[in-house]
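Notes from hallway chat w/ T.B., transcribed later so I don't forget. T.B. wanted the structure written out for a chain they're using in a teaching module, and asked if we could keep both sequence and structure tokens in one place. Agreed to drop them here.
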Amino acid sequence: MYKMVLIMLMMAVWMAMHALQTDEEIAMTALYQGKHAVNRAAHAAAQQVDRVALADGRLHIDEAAAYRNAGRYLQTNLQLNGDGEPLPESMLRDRVEVLVFEVINDDHVFPYTYRNSYYGYTVTLKRPGVVLIVRMIYPRIFNIIEPIEWTIKGTAELVAR
């Protein structure tokens, strides 16, 4: 009898460990999805050329258009509404927050090294670009462990061809 109880207890422990491992794998998938979304949003933002400056021979990013496009890409790729809240079909449950959106334009000398000591991010840009830092919280499927919070960083430069 005691062997049967021990087997049942070990099965419960094994199932709990398996569920925890599955939750970790889904969390990593969410992190990769978030990183790809941030990279795509930064790239879309960096390609918003100011046509007036381009007519003057300058590579300059239109900041308002860049911000709009970055938001649109984040909404589409992470399944968010206009306020950054997840849609019902999204794997996220908490608001995705844009912590830093910075356009580095031709008013800087390139190569330009961007530093953000608060978030521990440094990147060198060779031409105008966009820096995007987003906070994303992954809700755990099983409530054994607290939700995971990530600060996802991305940068893209204006492509001049």
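Follow-up for T.B.: Helices lie at 2-46, 51-55, 63-78. Might be a good example for the class.
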